[in-house]
Design a protein that fits this description.
Shape: elongated
Largest sheet: none
Low-confidence stretches: 10-26
Oligomer: single chain
Mean pLDDT: 84
Order of helices and strands: HHHHH
Number of helices: 5
Strand content: under 5%
Number of strands: 0
Radius of gyration: 20 Å
Length: about 130
Amino acid sequence: MKTALFPLALVYSLFFTSATSGATSNQNGCAMTVTYAEMAFAKFKKAYKAKSIADAQSYLKDGILQATESSAYAIQDACNCPLAKNYALSAVTFGNNAKKADKLDELKKWAKKAMDASLDVLTATPNCGKGK
């Protein structure tokens, strides 16, 4: 009897796990918002860790573009998340300030703020996607 219950329990647990795994924050219509915010975070982090302003510039450019995309996806009907849009646009602003910096310390300060704003997008999206 025990040997028959174990495979049955295993199959049940696998089915239950796969059936409930779709209930993540990315399934609420904000998957692209989250994806671009994560990519922006990664680029801003590389800019933050750069050894020179010249090295950081291309990372900042890419991070700004990705944060801009994140903000665009945040306001689409599928996601409908103005808070995430605002955080993403803050990341764009901070990234632009970092690009304008003439000292590495100042660049790093703004890049860190852009990283933080990119992460804030991720915290805003789980409560979004309810539609209009």
